[in-house]
């Protein structure tokens, strides 16, 4: 598969290749097209479907080196500012050699994203060759490096290359370690970071922790951050496995370093699930937060079974002292020892933060109950712009009428995100809430894995039509055996009444009662949305979907003349054939403003790309 995008734009090339570009200033936009199938893709000549000057990202799966060599020779302008490469487990030394040849031509490159996936197929010598080529990029300001299967020798080589890039201002490292990775490699990496005490303004680190790295190794890693006097953003995400050795010692050490970053305004910390992280570490961490007066953006994730109410009390005491904080996101995932009383005290503290504009609360799989969520009203102040609440998997909530969200009705939110995927839900209260939020511009409702009937959704879908300021609407109903075509029809029927609507996301994957009839009616109502810019429809694993749905989607989507981004999820729809996909592609050619098209057809066994002789003539979309 080949996928070209400007944040979402895609194109098919040869085999299973993916190319993707992100929104970067001064980069031209281009059309894109992508088809995902059963590890097969029809061969399409490069010159027929792409403008080489606009390619910015390559992602490869199951392609040959010859294809890649032909590609890099056609698509390497010297003045390109942004380049991204995403490999797969099949990427070997030959691809790295081709990538180095491509980078050699990119003299003016300022942003580089590399995702090397698995290192098992790449030799150390090839990695060294690639790193040496990166060092020659004298204008490079932003480096994003993602590697799986990292060993000690890899980190040593990467560290030396980083130390040579003294002009960097943004550094992102995503490492998934091998069990043999030791603390020594963290020490070497920290020494390379020490050379950036004047230039780095943003650091993002994601580590998959294993038994080879201890508190001491991570302490080595964060030890030089106090030298980054210009640092404004620090992101540390620790993804752990069971029996991770991370404990209170590391969190305490990190807490002692953070207050020295006087210009830091964005802090994102994900603490791993560990039985060695207790309340003690949050005493020092809360004290550190109180001293960070310039902080504007804060995201914290807790997932330890040993955290109790005492830790929440410490956090809630320091929050009102962050006078400049405008964005706050707190996640308590699987913290089984927390009580409703601690949540109430936390909500009261949040309510005192009058500078807060964006609030997100995630209680997934936590013990919060009806009594706890009723106290959410203490969070809200008149200045709150957006609110996100996740109650997925909260088995202690049995309030089917959702009375706890009543206080939201008096607020003037612009953005609202509610994940209520728990047990049986009565949507009457939610419907009345939606009807009152006249100022909403973005709304996301997730009711996945809920035992909902069609009649429960009818009033809710009708309430959407009252939101005349709404620009983006997301409705997720995945994994529901009782949802039928009636819900699909009632949801789509409300859309044309929202004149300001520009983006729609609807997902009913794994809903076995969805049939062609519902998709046909959905497509007809979507065809009436002349001002729609983006649509994402996911009906994957709906076994009753046939070619008729695809035909009608193509016919009615072709009427949405202003459509720019389209994402169709048809995975595991086994009754769809190649003929329907070809017809869909032909009909979508009339959309002159379409810059992103993704059609997902994984495990659609009747789609055979090697039998489509005219796919090359079908894909004639041009750059605009």
Q: What does this protein structure show overall?
A:
The chain has a 21-stranded mixed β-sheet, with helices on one face. Helix 9 runs parallel beside helix 10. The protein is globular. It is α/β, with parallel strands linked by helices. It contains 19 helices and 21 strands.
Care to give the gist of this entry?
By secondary structure, the protein is α/β, with parallel strands linked by helices. Helix content is 30%, strand content 19%. The protein is globular.
Give me the secondary-structure topology:
Blueprint: E1 16-18, E2 34-36, H1 46-49, E3 57-61, H2 65-74, E4 82-86, H3 93-104, E5 111-118, H4 124-135, E6 142-150, H5 152-164, E7 170-177, H6 183-193, E8 202-209, H7 215-222, E9 233-240, H8 248-257, E10 266-270, H9 279-290, E11 297-302, H10 309-318, E12 327-332, H11 340-351, E13 358-362, H12 370-374, E14 386-390, E15 415-419, H13 428-436, E16 442-446, H14 454-464, E17 472-476, H15 485-494, E18 503-507, H16 516-526, E19 534-538, H17 547-557, E20 565-569, H18 578-587, E21 596-600, H19 615-618
Parallel strand pairs: 2-21, 3-4, 4-5, 5-6, 6-7, 7-8, 8-9, 9-10, 10-11, 11-12, 12-13, 13-14, 14-15, 15-16, 16-17, 17-18, 18-19, 19-20, 20-21
Antiparallel strand pairs: 1-3
């Amino acid at each position: 598969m080949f996928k070209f995008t400007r944040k979402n734009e895609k194109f098919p090339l040869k085999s299973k290749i993916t190319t993707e570009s992100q929104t970067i200033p001064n980069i031209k936009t281009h059309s894109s097209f992508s088809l995902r199938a059963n590890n097969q893709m029809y061969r399409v000549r490069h010159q027929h479907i792409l403008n080489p000057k606009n390619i910015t990202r390559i992602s490869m799966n199951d392609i040959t080196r010859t294809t890649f060599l032909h590609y890099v020779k056609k698509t390497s302008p010297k003045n390109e500012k942004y380049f991204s490469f995403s490999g797969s487990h099949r990427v070997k030394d030959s691809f790295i050699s081709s990538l180095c040849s491509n980078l050699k031509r990119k003299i003016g490159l300022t942003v580089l994203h590399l995702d090397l996936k698995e290192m098992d197929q790449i030799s150390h010598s090839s990695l060294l060759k690639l790193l040496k080529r990166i060092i020659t990029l004298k204008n490079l300001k932003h480096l994003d490096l993602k590697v799986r299967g990292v060993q000690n020798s890899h980190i040593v080589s990467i560290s030396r290359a980083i130390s040579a890039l003294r002009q960097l201002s943004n550094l992102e490292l995503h490492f998934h370690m091998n069990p043999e990775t030791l603390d020594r490699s963290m020490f070497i990496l920290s020494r390379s970071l020490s050379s950036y005490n004047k230039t780095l303004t943003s650091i993002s680190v994601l580590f998959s922790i294993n038994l080879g790295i201890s508190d001491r190794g991570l302490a080595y890693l964060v030890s030089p951050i106090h030298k980054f006097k210009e640092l404004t953003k620090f992101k540390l995400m620790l993804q752990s496995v069971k029996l991770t050795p991370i404990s209170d010692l590391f969190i305490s050490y990190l807490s002692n370093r953070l207050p020295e970053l006087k210009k830091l305004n964005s802090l994102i910390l994900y603490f791993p699930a560990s039985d060695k992280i207790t309340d003690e570490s949050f005493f020092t961490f809360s004290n550190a937060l109180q001293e960070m007066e310039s902080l504007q953006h804060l995201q914290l994730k807790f997932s330890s079974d040993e955290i109790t109410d005492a830790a929440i009390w410490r956090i809630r005491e320091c929050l009102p002292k962050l006078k400049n904080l405008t964005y706050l996101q707190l996640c308590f995932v699987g913290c089984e020892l927390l009580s409703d009383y601690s949540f109430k005290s936390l909500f009261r503290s949040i309510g005192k933060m009058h500078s807060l504009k964006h609030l997100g609360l995630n209680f997934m799989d936590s013990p919060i109950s009806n009594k706890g969520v009723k106290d959410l009203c203490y969070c809200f102040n008149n200045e709150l712009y957006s609110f996100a609440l996740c109650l997925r998997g909260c088995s202690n909530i049995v309030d089917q009428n959702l009375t706890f969200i009543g206080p939201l009705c008096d607020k003037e939110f612009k953005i609202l995100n509610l994940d209520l995927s728990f047990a049986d839900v009565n949507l009457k209260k939610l419907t009345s809430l939606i009807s009152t939020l006249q100022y909403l511009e973005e709304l996301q409702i997730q009711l996945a894995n809920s035992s909902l009937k069609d009649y429960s959704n009818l009033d809710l879908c009708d309430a959407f039509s009252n939101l005349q300021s709404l620009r983006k609407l997301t409705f997720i109903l995945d994994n529901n055996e009782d949802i039928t075509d009636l819900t699909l029809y009632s949801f789509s029927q409300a859309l044309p009444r929202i004149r300001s609507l520009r983006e729609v996301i609807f997902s009913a994957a794994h809903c076995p009662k969805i049939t062609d009839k519902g998709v046909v009616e959905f497509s007809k109502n979507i065809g009436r949305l002349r001002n729609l810019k983006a649509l994402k429809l996911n009906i994957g694993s709906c076994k009753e979907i046939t070619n008729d749905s695809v035909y009608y989607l193509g016919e009615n989507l072709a009427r949405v003349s202003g459509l720019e981004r389209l994402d169709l999820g048809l995975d595991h729809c086994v009754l769809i054939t190649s003929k329907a996909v070809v017809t869909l592609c032909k009909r979508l050619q009339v959309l002159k403003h379409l810059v992103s098209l993704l059609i997902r057809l994984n495990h659609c066994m009747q789609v055979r790309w090697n039998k489509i002789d005219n796919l090359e003539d079908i894909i004639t979309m041009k750059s605009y």
